[in-house]
Amino acid sequence: MNSTESNDVNGSPSAKRIKLSQDVPGQNNEALTATLNKVEDFLQPFRLSVEKLREVSARLRKDFIRGLGKHTHRRAPVKMLPTFVRSTPDGTEKGDFLALDLGGTNFRVLHVRVVENLQRVLKMDSKICPISQEIMLGPGEQLFDHIAACLAEFLESLGLKDLTLPLGFTFSFPCEQKDIDKSILVRWTKGFNCSGVEGEDVVKLLREAIHRRGDFDISSVAMVNDTVGTMMSCGYRDQSCEIGMIIGTGTNACYMEEIKNVKRVEGEDGRMCINTEWGGFGDDGSLRDIQTEFDVEVDRSSLNPGVHTFEKMISGMYLGEVVRLVLVKLAQEKLLFGGELSEDLLTQDKFKTKYISQIEDDAAELDQAREILLKLGLPASPEDCEIVRMVCSTISTRSAHLCAAALATIVNRIRTNRGLDHLRTTVGVDGTVYKKHPKFSQRLQDAVHVLAPKCEISFLVSEDGSGKGAAMVTAVAQRLAMQSRLLEDSEGEGEDEEEEEDEEEEEKES
Predict the structure, then answer these.
(1) Where are the beta strands (DSSP E) in 34-159?
(2) What is the percent of the chain with per-residue pLDDT over 70, rounded to a whole number?
(3) Dihedrals φ, ψ of 337, to 5°?
(4) Of the residues 90, 94, 190, 375, which is catalytic?
(5) Predicted model pTM
(6) Is 508 a residue of the active site?
(7) Active-site annotation holder among 101, 226, 464, 496
């Protein structure tokens, strides 16, 4: 790998870009240049070469194989969860659907219409229903009765109560999905702790609550992960969309895998969407060589140390905090702010990820950086502002490149699975980091082009994946009337390890 290729992918800002002020009190240009060179050296661990990114992609490929194994999935950091979605839209889907999106202190109910001749998914109406603290911590029956009551009110207001519509259910809590309409809650998160739900099928609990009311009914139910919703909402507009990716508060991706490779599911023919849960990549220590001291500190001070290692290097929940820690260290080293520190800069999570996007916006020049630094109680000389922008750019670029390495793993795998010399595919994408950062999407696309040169990838931004996508999953499930069951886990592991070795050999040969 030559250095030119590395530079093309990294494209990181250099000290040469920085305009040197002629009137910095007590500091000449030579001293300032020396400071900037030290900052460059300081940020070097965040700049990953093409060779290192390829290495990261290869490690993730091995974790994919482990996660898909019937016996090895239990110890795999990347869980590769079967979703029982066995097809992307083919454009013939149509009809009216309900979508239910539960994942926080509010939940949404939507009425969605899929229009075949327009190739569009229309959100007809929606309603947001609050969930009180009492319900979040009370009996599970009370929670599902509340959901059923809100659903009934919504249908009543639209005059749809006499119809029996299919429902797509986005339930954003850790679940083990057994089928398209059977999902077992593993544990509550996000402040919920309703009794009698963990270990139970949430679809069954919802149906029971609806039956207790007796004034309306639903037909089929499809459980939907948000990445799958993203893929499916884009898939109706572009039938070549077989990947869903989210880069927002968290990060995750799904893709269409050959069923014969999904060892936990019966069947040899066709494909199934796999929810990779790639945020857990590195939880076994496999990314220690690229974790900086700042990544280690972000993990240590998080609510879930040792979990979601990859996500903590990439996603919106953590990027601002990585930048804050770097700025603190630069100030302590007298390379920034004249060595001054403010109370805000020393406070966890005070440097918001949205500040990175604002600071890197070329249209704002350095004005945004100056305003943000002043708000944080920091000096804001032009040189300080430029160095802060350099830090933001370096860390957001690393995020884009790590995402590109992971996405390259997926597209290269799909191409190899299908025995293709060249793959053309579309990625449905959602998330605030991808959509709001002015340069993130281009950096990601440029890097994945280098890391997956035999794949031509288009990117399509999702429109309401958790609502429209849930309806599309339900529509496709209806069209296929699919049948698929998880195989029971067995104790032996030798067979999977042989398959893992065989598959790795096949990929090397391709």
Answers:
(1) 81-82, 95-102, 106-115, 120-130
(2) 88
(3) 60, 25
(4) 190
(5) 0.86
(6) no
(7) 226
